[in-house]
Design goal:
Distance between the termini of chain A: 47 Å
Oligomer: homodimer
Strand content of chain A: 5-15%
Number of strands of chain A: 3
Shape of chain A: globular
Number of helices of chain A: 6
CATH superfamily of the domain at 16-103 in chain A: Winged helix-like DNA-binding domain superfamily/Winged helix DNA-binding domain
Order of helices and strands of chain A: HHEHHEEHH
Largest sheet of chain A: 3 strands, antiparallel
Structural class of chain A: mainly alpha
Strand order of the largest sheet of chain A: 1-3-2
Radius of gyration of chain A: 17 Å
CATH class of the domain at 16-103 in chain A: Mainly Alpha
CATH topology of the domain at 16-103 in chain A: Arc Repressor Mutant, subunit A
Largest interface: A-B, 45 and 45 residues
DNA sequence: GGGATAAGATTGACTCCGCAACCAAACTAG
DNA sequence: CTAGTTTGGTTGCGGAGTCAATCTTATCCC
């Protein structure tokens, strides 16, 4: 139970801190950042909205709202799938990549600082491995098998 | 960075799941639960609102709102401090203890299940220790030195 | 083919909670 | 004693994200 309490505390504190930084420097949230990062890394710079949602740990409706914001900001756009009219892709735009790049600069170094000043590389590996066993973690680079649908 | 991503994912998934359970069984959230737990464990069943806020990882305003809810539910009440008119204590009521007890039944076992089926006791210790180094964790049983004010 | 069922996506209403601004009480000087 | 500063606490406003309901398109099965 202590593990859960500490995880909650760490998440709350770090999220608040990183959100404040990102908000000030790029007007985005940590979840926005994570979504952009996933899109930028995805094949073709786009993903189905559902897949993106589970990747970043949101529900489908949460993803709709998050993408509303990013779309208003011009960072992503919708693309339709010709083979299945139900799906719409979220695709990162050039402006979105620029935004991500600008935000990454300070965010990634802040992130690295927090962890590297507290853990040795071996300990960090340990932590990553242990966290990966929890539900909802490990939605990493996998789960994109049928990513090659057309337009 | 993977550690941060996994922490976010695990937090999102587990919070949603636990919240759903607690909401259904006792009409409270995981944060409510944590606050009640802290109060029940505190000396005299009460804490200054600020101290409680940092203990559960909220801001002062978040704590005001959370306690509004618990007070409406009759689970906590306010107590004034005679030696410092600024502070109000949050004190757990008998109804609050009953609520906590009822909620703990299923919540703690769900919690134990999630962790025990994924980690050995030694690994769990490891995880607790590593998480404890992160900012915002470790707001545990310490930090209540001057808890013996009057009235 | 034609109706049930499922999957992707969106919307409305709601909760939680943070920030910034604020008030009041308490220390700290000059 | 009075003026500034700090600390505890609350409130207006707004953002983020959930759930439940809904709509549309696919798929399954007879």
């Amino acid at each position: 139970m202590t593990a859960w309490v500490r995880l909650m505390g760490a998440h709350a504190a770090m999220t608040r801190s990183f959100n404040a930084d990102l908000q000030a420097s790029s007007a985005i949230t940590v979840t926005d950042f994570e979504a952009l990062r996933r899109l930028a890394a995805a094949d073709g710079g786009r993903m189905r909205r559902v897949d993106l949602a589970v990747a970043v740990g949101l529900t489908a409706s949460g993803m709709t709202r998050l993408l509303d914001g990013l779309e208003r900001a011009g960072a992503v756009c919708k693309e339709h799938c010709s083979s299945d009219a139900r799906v719409t892709y979220a695709a990162i735009t050039d402006a979105g990549r620029a935004l991500l790049h600008a935000a990454a600069e300070s965010h990634l170094s802040a992130l690295a600082a927090v962890f590297s000043e507290r853990f040795s590389p071996a300990e960090l590996d340990q932590l990553v491995e242990l966290l990966g066993r929890l539900p909802g973690a490990e939605e990493d680079a996998s789960s994109c098998p049928g990513a090659a649908a057309e337009d």
